[in-house]
Amino acid sequence: MSRRVTLTQMLAFSAVASLELAAAQTCNTSFEAAASADPNLGLLSTAITSLGGGSSGGIIPSPTSNITILAPIDNAFLNLLTAQNLSLGSIASIQDQLIAVLLQAVLLKSYSAAELEAAGKLESALSEVTGDSYPVTFVMNGTTLTATGPGNMMAARITKSTQVCGSWLHDVDLALLPTTRITDAPAITAAQLQALTSGGSAGAPADAPASADAPASADTPD
């Protein structure tokens, strides 16, 4: 029987995806430091800290893993629970489905905001785990880049973009959903997560744009 993943691990996974795809490079910061410096990612920062995150090893890899995180801000996560008639105390029964929601927010390569706009649509880490298509669609709405998951009725706005070594951390004001109801999302097991973190997945689409020239940090215009 697969070992269940705790709520704290799930929250941290939305920030780091626990990928072992890192290229050898020097990195003097961490996802923990980036989240701590962002006043809108308090829940994320707390989750990473509780697991000894950043560059200290364990479940949290270094940002040299070259991934993209579409991180829901604190209000986005809390609003999701309210909209789904859930509470922090009641979600233990759907932990496996909630992991799928968090995987929907992870891309397996590094993309700046400009590269996300250029790509238009990219498969999420959930696609890699399940073998089904769970993309994120990116559209420029005026001067604001938006992101939409298959289950979202409204697009999430990317409000801030920060490069963390070889990876990108994008704040979003709505949680990205693979299905309209969390309870309808595919149940993800610890074994599937292990396959992803050990590099068993195929990764992002081969025709995705490179991110070598991404800027160090950029806030999305209002």
List key phrases describing it.
alpha+beta, single chain, 222 residues
Topology:
Blueprint: H1 7-16, H2 31-36, H3 42-50, E1 68-72, H4 74-83, H5 95-103, E2 106-107, H6 113-119, E3 121-123, H7 125-130, E4 135-141, E5 144-148, E6 156-164, E7 167-172, H8 190-197, E8 217-218
Parallel strand pairs: 1-7
Antiparallel strand pairs: 1-2, 3-4, 4-5, 5-6, 6-7, 6-8
Helix pairs in contact: 1-3, 1-5
Describe this structure in words.
By secondary structure, the chain is of the alpha+beta class. It contains eight helices and eight strands. It has helices spanning 7-16, 31-36, 42-50, 74-83, 95-103, 113-119, 125-130, 190-197, and strands at 68-72, 106-107, 121-123, 135-141, 144-148, 156-164, 167-172, 217-218. Strands 1, 2, 3, 4, 5, 6, 7 and 8 form an eight-stranded mixed beta sheet that branches. The longest helix has 10 residues, at 7-16. The radius of gyration is 16 Å and the shape is globular. The relative contact order is 0.20. The model is unreliable at 14-24, 51-60 and 202-222 (pLDDT under 50).
Q: Care to give the gist of this entry?
A:
The chain is of the alpha+beta class.
Give the oligomer, counting copies of the same chain as homo and different chains as hetero: single chain
- N-to-C series of helices and strands: HHHEHHEHEHEEEEHE
Percent of residues in beta strands: 15-25%
Distance between the termini: 48 Å
Query: What is the CA-atom radius of gyration, in angstroms?
Result: 16 Å
Globular, elongated, flat, extended or rod-shaped: what is the shape? globular
Low-pLDDT residue intervals, each spanning 5 or more residues: 14-24, 51-60, 202-222
Q: What about the largest sheet?
A: 8 strands, mixed
Mean pLDDT: 76
Helices, by number, come to 8
Approximately how much helix is present in the residues?
A: 25-40%
Structural class: alpha+beta
How many beta-strand runs? 8
